[in-house]
Structure formats: C-alpha cells, structure tokens
Write a structure and sequence with these properties.
Blueprint: H1 2-31, H2 51-76
Length: 80
C-alpha cells in the first residue's frame, strides 16, 4: 500500500508542476498580448477561464490529499 501511495504522490507532483508551468506560460503570453502557443486556449483568452487553470487547480487539490495520505501512512506504519 505504501508503494502505491508513493507512486501516486510522485505522479501527482509531476502533474501539478506540469499543469502550473503550462498555466504560467499561458498567463505570461496573455499578459504580453501574445496568442497561446500551448493549445489550451484559442486566441487571446483569459487564462483563468481555460482548462489549463482548472486542471492545475484539481491537480493541486489531489496532490494535497496525496500528501495527507502519505503522512498518515508514514505515521501508522513502522519504519522498515
């Protein structure tokens, strides 16, 4: 069970970093009045209304839940 939670933690960490990086690139392009190059939005669309932002938020929530799960498992299982 511990290996599964650690794998989940790593996948969600990488996904969260990837999602927020894409959102940041999209936000910088929007602030500089450049067209989005990542494909999250077509044209000059507010990046807070795109799937990239919502995906980043949900990845962050899932990552936080995973951190709590991992800390709880580490507290309940003896060190090996």
């Amino acid at each position: 069970m511990k290996k599964l939670v650690i794998t989940q933690f790593i996948v969600l960490l990488l996904g969260t970093v990837f999602a927020w990086t894409n959102f940041t690139i999209e936000l910088v392009n929007w602030l500089n009045k450049r067209v989005c190059t990542l494909g999250c939005a077509v044209g000059l669309v507010n990046p807070f209304l795109t799937p990239c932002f919502y995906g980043a938020c949900f990845f962050t929530i899932a990552f936080i839940v995973s951190v709590f799960m991992l800390s709880k498992i580490k507290k309940t299982q003896p060190a090996t």
